[in-house]
Design goal:
single chain, about 180 residues, alpha+beta, Lipocalin, 8-stranded antiparallel β-barrel, about 25% helix, elongated
Length: about 180
Amino acid sequence: MRIFKTFTTLTVGVLSVLSISTVMNLHKANAQAAADNEQALCRKSVTGTYLITLTNASGNFASRSLITLTAEGNFIFNDSNQGGISGIFNPFTTGQGTWKCTGKKEVAARALDFSLSDQGGTGIARNDYKATFNTRTNTVTGTINLQFFDLQADPLEGDIQSGTITFTGQRVTAK
């Protein structure tokens, strides 16, 4: 009889531990599924091309850009000032990088581009975007933190504060 009570107590204890573990894992799985679903909804709702207007720190017009967020997480930008402004800054290439959702309708993106001169490449710029999307109006607002690095430096490491630009924009849609 004593062995039966011990066995019963042990069995109940083991089953309790397994039940608690199962419940805890279900909560983790549900939380992960919810996070994955939020990411999928964000990606689906913000993917596309946007025409944005950039404004400098003084609130003045700086340029226009096209930004594209692909479903695969690629980020591309082209800017109306890529030809450079004589005596102010050199021409630069199209920027390319990646993006990810950081909220329901918020993204962070990082793109790199090369500055050019008649002697060849002169540096690398890192453009860190933070953007919020309004899917009802197909609009976007955000900031771009610009950082400039020597051509042989690693633009993915370190921060060199160079300037922040704000932007607003509209999704480009087919008619």
